[in-house]
Design brief:
4 domains; ribosomal S6-glutamic acid ligase activity; ATP_grasp_subdomain_1; ligase; binds magnesium ion; D-amino Acid Aminotransferase, Chain A, domain 1; protein biosynthesis; monoatomic cation transmembrane transporter activity; Rossmann fold; about 400 residues; binds adenosine-5'-diphosphate
């Protein structure tokens, strides 16, 4: 296998470790500067030049795109995607995770617990937004901050308002977020590779600092994560489209609250804290994926007219609940069940004896017409009911 590490910091700990791990496993590796690529759309096929010469063939890339070069860096990653070079983190995933608001918006619809957050523009909306997330003290965050820079704890509403106004006047966008007191300057970093957490650490802020970033002087310790934390981390990375990610979570009284998902997690802190070979795990994962490249199943399976993939949900469906899959009648209707999702577990290629339960989700391939009747109605937004006033309304005269 031949791997390119896209990095502007060839001497950094993470790049060095990834490079060494690749060589250790008998693969070829180059560290390439993301800013020295030229995206070439002049020929018949998408192409890339590197330092003025045509790029040689690579099996995979490991993008380590710094915050300051997100736009160009993701464009280069996207070009590799067009050329069918495997990347664990897609350009879309990197771009989405980089912007804290965008990441929060995407995660929130998938039921990932996050600190209550608001984003407003108009002056008149600032105070109500702060109050909605729980009032002062309140955390303010620049959308594209990193290493703790641009994360402020405002002790009072008036101060928060002044900070927001100042930042907005310099055209900076700010998130308003509930301050999770009980996390007490600590957070969890879970390193996700594929569908599991391979290493995790707790970061502890220095002194009375509330930000636990290592760049702010925080310390680290190894932790064993509860499954609740593992699930939150893996799901968040998956939703963001990142196969390699550092997921940051606060430990709240109600369990994990996901703060951010990093697409180029640093390896130094986590390898030091856990003594685990995270770089090696990254390379092993990539080698596996290159052997079995991702294919867009939906696209490939939609080729014959009238057939496609769909997810069916076993709702209060008396015809299905309690029946073994073999007696469900699905196969007779030309519907093949590829996977069965039940809560957090997945049964791949379920067999005819698997008994269906309420709320099982079946990923199916079959005749669209047959499946249409089984697809649940689109979820509706909760109807908003106006609260009745505490005092009864005065009777009309
Ligand atoms: N809502 C919050 N409540 C309490 N602590 C927070 C909150 N948001 C962030 N922090 C602390 O500040 C640190 C930096 O915040 P984060 O959103 O991860 O920004 P960055 O991208 O700069 O690392 C976190 O690691 C955490 O320790
Ligand atoms: Mg962070």
């Amino acid at each position: 296998m031949k791997i390119a590490i896209l990095s502007r910091a060839p001497r950094s700990y993470s790049t060095q470790r990834l490079r060494a791990a690749t060589i250790d496993r008998g693969h070829e590796v180059r560290v390439l500067d993301s800013m020295r690529f030229a995206i070439d759309l002049s020929g018949a096929e998408p192409d890339l030049q590197y330092r003025g010469r045509r790029l040689s063939e690579y099996d995979a890339i490991i993008p380590r795109i710094g915050n300051s070069i997100t736009y160009y860096g993701t464009a280069v990653v996207r070009q590799f995607e067009q050329m069918d070079v495997y990347t664990p983190n897609t350009a879309a995933g990197i771009a989405n995770s980089r912007d804290k608001l965008r990441a929060n918006q995407i995660l929130s619809r998938h039921g990932i617990a996050m600190p209550p957050t608001a984003f407003v523009r108009d002056r008149a909306d600032v105070i109500p937004a702060i109050e909605r997330v729980g009032g002062a003290p309140v955390v303010l965050k620049l959308l594209e901050g990193t290493q703790g820079i641009g994360v402020i704890l405002a002790p009072e509403i008036k101060v928060a308002e002044a900070i927001i106004e100042t930042l907005q006047s310099t055209r900076q966008n700010v998130l308003i977020q509930k301050f999770i007191k009980e996390s007490k300057g600590r957070d969890i970093r879970a390193l996700v590779i594929g569908d599991r957490v391979v290493a995790a650490m707790r970061r502890i802020a220095n002194g009375d600092e509330f930000r636990s970033n290592v760049h702010r002087g925080g310390g680290v310790e190894r932790v064993e994560l509860d499954t609740e934390y593992e699930h939150a981390a893996v799901r968040s990375a998956q939703i963001m489209g990142l196969k390699i990610a550092g997921v940051d979570m606060l430990e709240s009284d109600d369990g994990p609250l996901v703060m951010e998902v990093n697409s180029s997690p640093g390896l130094e802190g986590i390898e030091t804290a856990t003594k685990l070979d995270v770089a090696g795990a990254v390379i092993d994962y990539i080698a596996n994926q290159v052997a079995f490249p991702q294919i867009d199943v939906r696209e490939r399976l939609s080729v014959s007219t009238g057939y496609g993939v769909a997810e069916l949900v076993v709702h209060g469906d008396a015809n299905l609940i309690g029946k073994p899959l073999g007696d469900s009648g699905l196969r007779e209707r030309d519907i093949a069940v590829l996977t069965l999702h039940r809560g957090a577990t997945v049964i791949p290629n379920p067999l005819p004896y698997h008994v269906l339960e309420a709320d099982d989700r079946l990923l199916c391939f079959g005749k669209l017409e047959e499946m249409r009747s089984l697809i649940p109605a689109r979820p509706r937004r909760r109807p908003r009911v106006k609260r009745l006033p505490k005092q009864p309304l005065p009777a009309p005269e």
